[in-house]
Please model this.
Amino acid sequence: MPILETRKISKHFGGLIAVNEVDYRVEPGELRSIIGPNGAGKTTFFNMIAGDLAATSGQVFFHGEDITRLATFERSHKGIGRTYQITTIFPRLTVRENVRIAAQSRKTTFNMWTGVNQHKELIEKADHILERVRLADKWDEPAGTLAHGEQRYLEIGIALATDPVLLLLDEPTAGMSPEESRRTAEFIRGLANPLTIILVEHDMEIVMGISDRITVLHNGEFLAEGTVDEIRANEDVKRVYLRD
Amino acid sequence: MTKAMETPQAAEGREPSFRFRLGGLLSGLFGFFDRYGILVLGALLLVYPFLLKGLGELIFLAEDHDLQGLAQVLLRLRAVIPSTPLMIQIIIYAFFGIAFNILLGYTGMLSLGHAAFFGVGGYTVGLMHVWFKPGTAVPDWMVGAFTLFPLETSLLSAVVVSALVALGVGMLASRKRGVYFAMLTLALSQVFYYAAQTFDRLTGGTDGLGGLANMRLGSLNLQVGIMDAQVTYYFVFFIAAVSTAIIWQVLRSPFGHSLQAVRENERRARNCGFDTDRIRLYAFVISGMFSGLAGALSIIYGESVPIENVHFSTSGQIVIISLFGGAGVFLGPAVGSFIYWYLRQLMSTEFVKYLAIFQYWEMWVGGIFILIVLFLPQGILGSVWQWTVNFRARRQMREYRRRMTAAVQRAEEGIDDAHP
Model:
């Protein structure tokens, strides 16, 4: 069974059709990429999967269950985590607290009668994740004071803290140096399988380097899908990218 | 070689300069207040009536022994120490501010309608004292319970009623964000003001709901109210302290931290799996509930409910008080309340003796408010807190730099020794 499936999913903003009847299937453990020129509807498509935007029509299935009408937080509980194109963290909280709070959202959100420090397992989990995203030594700094690249990693850490099975990464290497981007690509490759990852990325080198399969969107419509080599050889894709 | 061995020890063993020791003292003090400030404050408030009483007795003593000079000085001193009724007011608004700040400081929601809860809490206690009598429409068992425990039942009812009102207002308003939320709370709270004004046969309208006698704690058989400021003071202090402790606990709990997540980045919070709409609503209800309790306490000493309690000016006042002290720190509104009421009192009773213009205290408080917003945007306590953080960071930096210089020196001297 596919872990994620969309059936004829569309998003209209007034007269503008941002995403038009896209069918999409992702198998568990895959590292998938979505590419396409600016305005192709990649982020809108992401937003409909994660729940930030409601689909105008069509359906989203997660593990075979229809989640089209679920709120963002409910989808998060089902196991969908995401990062944003523009870094979205809790800037005035410490690095550890950023991750700890994300881990907390599962059980203890409405617990008013204990102190947060009593939940040692959450702190341990946060520290463990901070080690994975290489921020362990910055744990007590306010997240807003981290360097840009570190904030990108922190955001991935926050998403990981919610124990996702499907991770949506919206341009994780945006604003990074080529060297940083390469390291990040390796890091993302390391996350995939058991995690299923869908990546929106502009950096073709990265996309071609780490993806299992690539999907191309153009003007909100499905254009092509296939392995790296198939996409490289695809005439439609070449035409779209050359024209831009 | 011996020289190289000695130098670092000499550098580290050097007597720290006086400036350094002063810094250490300040840092220690700040650390102490950071941790135990709330206890210090509580202890001060606890002994305050005794201090005031002691001062009064000292004045008598001085007069008895013909020490007119000393008596005069002590009298001047007593004039500038806040009186017990003023302290009651300060404590109530400190508590009100802390409850309000659950929203403003912790969840990042600016409510301009908290007068509704404050007022409703007061009216609940007031109306129960007026209505709950034999021979009215109120069921007998209720009247019976009320007669046995008048203040206990009415305060509890005030909490319940204001929580329900907050639930209603919150369900309508808390789904909106930012300015729209603020405007909605303002509009909805005005409904309560006009209701209080319109149904004046119930509420006394613009005259307020007066003539509430028998403010009595049935369980302790204790009479509070205008007749005994000191007992009222302790009663109000006790309820406010316990409630503040509850709020403190809620804010340090996982729920309290999810409020901060909503404040910092609601979108991220939602994506982390937080039901932010529900969190905002809960925060609103908790805040409104305690605000209602504060409003209920506020009518005890005066034994009447002024309609101003439910007027917009009260909502504005609590915003000002919170920002005065600093919305970013737990005790900020408490400090704000003290400064606000104390300044107001000083101006209209003391300063006015020297300069008539001080009778327009609103103007001065407004001016100070503008200055604080411009130059201390984190509020008074918030700024002090920020200074201590910066101070500590600077101190650590200086220590670090000192060690680095010593290490560099050591290394250089080592090189000199090796290549003479």
